[in-house]
Amino acid sequence: MGRAFAYVILGGGVAAGYAALEFVRRRSDGAAGELCIISDETVAPYERPALSKGYLSPEGGARLPAFHTCAGANDQLLTNNWYREHGIELILGTKVISVDVRRKTLFTSAGETISYATLIVATGARALKLEEIGGNGSDAENVCYLRNLEDADKLIRVMRSCPGGDAVVIGGGYIGMECAAALVANNIKVTIVFPGKHCMENLFTPKIAEFYENYYASKGVTFIKGTVVSSLAISSGKVTTAILRDGRRLPADMVVVGIGARANTALFEGQLVMEKGGIKVSGQMRTSDASVYAVGDVAAFPVKLLGAEVRRLEHVDCARRTARHAVAAALDSSGATGDIDYLPFFYSRVFALSWKFYGDNTGKAVHFGDLDFSASSSSKPKFGALWVSAGRIAGAFLEGGSPEEYEAIAHAVRRGTAVPDVAVLARQGLAFIVQEGQSGAARSRSGGLCGCGNTPSYAWHATVGVAAAVSIAAFAYWYGWKAPYLAKRDF
Ligand SMILES: Cc1cc2nc3c(=O)[nH]c(=O)nc-3n(C[C@H](O)[C@H](O)[C@H](O)COP(=O)(O)OP(=O)(O)OC[C@H]3O[C@@H](n4cnc5c(N)ncnc54)[C@H](O)[C@@H]3O)c2cc1C
């Protein structure tokens, strides 16, 4: 049995949904029957970040269909009907088990052969298992991962089975920290264990991490740092105790594992060029095979802003933008689509806190705002860090900013705002960035160009502003309104 499509998207996550919408927009002349999406998940593409936020709220906040893509960008909600109405073949609950890039064919778990003229690989990443780092227990009834809806449903079931119980969270990164906040909201006592010196080690400075760790501690969370869970003691299919390398034993009614992710590249090993643990692509998201594009978590692409250094960014904004860019390039027969010009952007929302980060955390970190947490400190803290590299702003982190302030830091990173004197920046902090942004915009209005290409700075400013406002509005909608205890509306 076989079918053929002009375009096939392999994977049905965030990138697939945004790619589908872009495809329909660019083929307004009608493209029914040309595009097929194949996903091993049983539901249409959805906004994955909701799983660790609104979805886990005790009152059952975000539920499908409300967070199908592209709700996160305040755009159309792509339900199954939407795909049907636009003539897009959505093949769900079907795993692609092998791919022959030379013959342009995919083979599915249903025994079907699907051929394509153009393939967009959007297979994302998978959660790293304990067994892959020498541990055990992944199959236990009360051990949870969080990558997809099925995982989230298991996590909710397990949380509800042990109200007031003890959870051991393994890992102090994004998933560990966001799940810990959700567990607390669900009245579970949390101990987070990780080998590093502080949480979110890849992004946070020690000072920033200290604030969040103190904040979590004020919510009853215990941190055990500098060691690992060496094994899980299991009885009748359930973990009872987490045993640490240093011999300590932590009672556990449940375990949540957030030890990192691996890009789903296996289908293409030996067929496409790989880099940084993902599929290497050009600035147009094209792989080493001209008929194959890769987007989202699985793609390693050159980031212009970082001197075209190849990066693989496991963040939702990146999935959306790379997906749109790949579709633009794939549908552009003139070949005029340029290279993606991406400003790295990540965010997180936990408890009443909310932060955003733009750019690269390299160089000297200059902190600003009130980083000293105490139980009596403001319920709406505002602080951050600006990374200065070669005399320019390379990265910016801001907790509790206003839309205008987030826009200003994004702009500063994009422009690479000059910092002639770090001491002045340290004294003025965020005010330095806001002032620089305003004077940069004023210079642009009088005819000057910003330092980021040929686009007048105010035009870029406006674009970022609209994008930021849209994304803030969207996330406030289904994280803020629907789960006020996990994420606070900030505008
Ligand atoms: C719980 C959670 C919370 C997150 N929160 C944030 C956040 O707050 N901020 C942020 O910036 N980022 C966040 N992220 C990251 C963000 O969700 C990802 O970067 C984004 O989902 C990547 O999109 P993608 O389409 O590349 O991959 P995915 O969304 O993972 O989609 C990949 C799809 O491909 C399917 N697939 C894979 N292999 C096959 C196969 N062989 N056959 C068929 N189908 C296949 C998968 O099942 C899945 O449907 C979060 C991620 C998770 C898991």
UniProtKB/TrEMBL annotation:
Keyword set includes Phosphoprotein: no
Similarity remark: Belongs to the FAD-dependent oxidoreductase family.
Entry-linked PANTHER family: APOPTOSIS-INDUCING FACTOR 1, MONODEHYDROASCORBATE REDUCTASE 1, PEROXISOMAL
Cofactor(s) named in the record: FAD
Keywords from the UniProt entry: FAD, Flavoprotein, Membrane, NAD, Oxidoreductase, Redox-active center, Transmembrane, Transmembrane helix
Keyword Transmembrane included in the entry's annotation: yes
Pfam families per the UniProt record, alphabetical: MDHAR3-like_C, Pyr_redox_2
Chain ranges passing through the membrane: 458-479
GO CC entries: cytoplasm
Gene3D superfamilies attached to this UniProt entry: 3.30.390.30, FAD/NAD(P)-binding domain
Species of provenance: Miscanthus lutarioriparius
GO MF terms held by the record: monodehydroascorbate reductase (NADH) activity
Limits of the Monodehydroascorbate reductase 3-like C-terminal domain: 343-432
Superkingdom of source: Eukaryota
Domain FAD/NAD(P)-binding intervals: 6-322
Signal peptide coordinates: none
Stated name of the protein: monodehydroascorbate reductase (NADH)
Reactions catalysed according to its record: 2 monodehydro-L-ascorbate radical + NADH + H(+) = 2 L-ascorbate + NAD(+)
EC number: 1.6.5.4
